[in-house]
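Structural prep section.
Before we set up the soaks we want a predicted structure of the protein with 6-O-phosphono-alpha-D-glucopyranose in place, mainly to decide which crystallisation condition to try first. Input record follows.
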Amino acid sequence: MCGIVAYLGPKEAFPVLIKGLHRLEYRGYDSAGVALLNNNRELKVYKTKGKVSELEKFVSGKNLTGHVGIAHTRWATHGEPNSRNAHPHYSNDKKLAIIHNGIIENYAVLRKALMDLGYHFESDTDTEVLINLIDNIQKNEAVSLEEAVRIALNQVTGAYAIAVLSADNPDMLIVARKGSPMVIGVGENEFFVASDATPLIEYTKQVIYMEEEHVAVLQLGKEIKLTTIKNQIKTPYIEALEMDLSQLEKEGFDHFMLKEIYEQPRSIKDSMRGRLNAEKGIVSLGGIKDYEQKIVNARRILIIACGTSWHAGLVGEYLLEDLARIPVEVEYASEFRYRKPIIYEDDVVIAISQSGETADTLAAIQLAKEKGATILGICNVVGSSIARETHAGSYTHAGPEIGVASTKAFTAQVTVLALLALRMAQIKGTIPTSRWMQLLHELENIPAKVEKTLNNKEIILEISEKFKNVSNFLYLGRGYNFPVALEGALKLKEISYIHAEGYPAAEMKHGPIALIDKNMPVVFVAPANGIYDKVVSNIQEVKARNGHVIAIVTEGDTVIRNQVDYAIEIPATEAMFTPLLASIPLQKLAYHMAVLRGCNVDQPRNLAKSVTVE
Ligand code: G6P
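Run finished without errors. Recording the tokens verbatim:
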């Protein structure tokens, strides 16, 4: 949530910053701003409500010179999203400017104390409090800016990734993080800073992922100075970035979400690459190799996640229990962290997160760690906080996901969970080898089947046209496809703003059936395996009440096709792998509905891709 970007070096800062903001806009987009320090040491702040494109219009004709600057795209936490509350924020004397991602929880007390000292505030934000706190410390304690930042950060509670710019220190940027992500890009006598690596990639592949409570002083012509907020000296660890610019472009698609949906044959393959070889009977997840015995001997596995990742976790529960016979519980991270959960030392916790930055998931990990459990991560973003906070883990390797609604990350998470379950089944010997080999071969065939699943544009467009004006949708599935129904409903809600509920199909008669009438479309995820006959009965119950039925069916299915209004085919596969196929038409349905309703698909209202606040 909130994207921050900063530059210090020989280039004009503004173009680097604005391009960076566009790349980070998925993190928040209710207001945007930039601060530039020009050669006359004038610190200019320009900010406005709305998207980064609004900021570009707003600054046109203004003095945008300067080789150092900071910029921000916001997802409001404190104060409504308007220009006043947009970042950067000045100190009262306008000598300092700050951008901030996170929440300062004790800001009200600090604000009051600063007001008593004569400070005034132009915004309702916690961030303006922080910059004036730094200013006050610098002046009153006669310390350097760097020291003032450290002292201030010791006084705040909450989360922050900040960059501070000072008119009196024109060749310097001070950055720090706790709980919110931050990456420094190191170029030839120039520095880039951002919430993630995407704004840096076209300039440098040398990056430093900032650690918790670290402060970095970036100065032209000098080595990076890295300390903790307690002023312990640290050595910067520079890593090579493995990301390629084309992954960040739309490549001819109208939206990132559509591109990402169509990338799935490749992204699923990438999730399996080097991990699955059906011919040789090999499944291995290198990152967790040393923890295999812990998993096998675990009292139980606790999966913690939020949103779409939680849905992937539910599929994981079914897979791990089905194949490896290990008890699994799936928890919303936000509930887990606050409900005094029972955690044993022989529990294995698997945290699933696309971004690797979700605040609730991070906090849940911390809690489980304190109780002595083993923590594994399944993350997409390399170097992310969750990837670093866990004992071990597996990256999903889906490539950058820019669309706010998660698509390819979900199928990549399910793929990694399937690999994990198959590996555990192998070690435990819970299924016969011949059956296990059959499953390996089938999983290897999935990317080709996903490719076929994408050939259904006409029927999905027709369905979208027909139902684009309804207010409610119901999604039903059983077994492995219950989580798919939840995920299908979430996708529709997120991007088309149509109310949608996912339910286990059999639960329909315990409540949701009351909603069914001639206006209600019901999506059944009904591939021909598992509890097919029971789903057919559920479909009849909806038809008997004049509901409209859209069914996801297996290729060649005639039984359901003859009973429903619309059928979307997916290739036949094992029940346990159907989520990898059945979720895709539901992603496309949500996409086309949203486009037809004129919604902003990649940046839906009120949402952010990386939820770094609780
Ligand atoms: C946000 C995003 C969702 C995502 C959820 C969990 O709500 O909009 O798409 O599923 O966070 O994010 P994570 O990065 O932890 O998977």
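Observations: Residues 306-309, 353-355, 358, 361, 404-406, 607, 609-611 surround 6-O-phosphono-alpha-D-glucopyranose (CB under 6 Å).
Flagged for discussion at group meeting.
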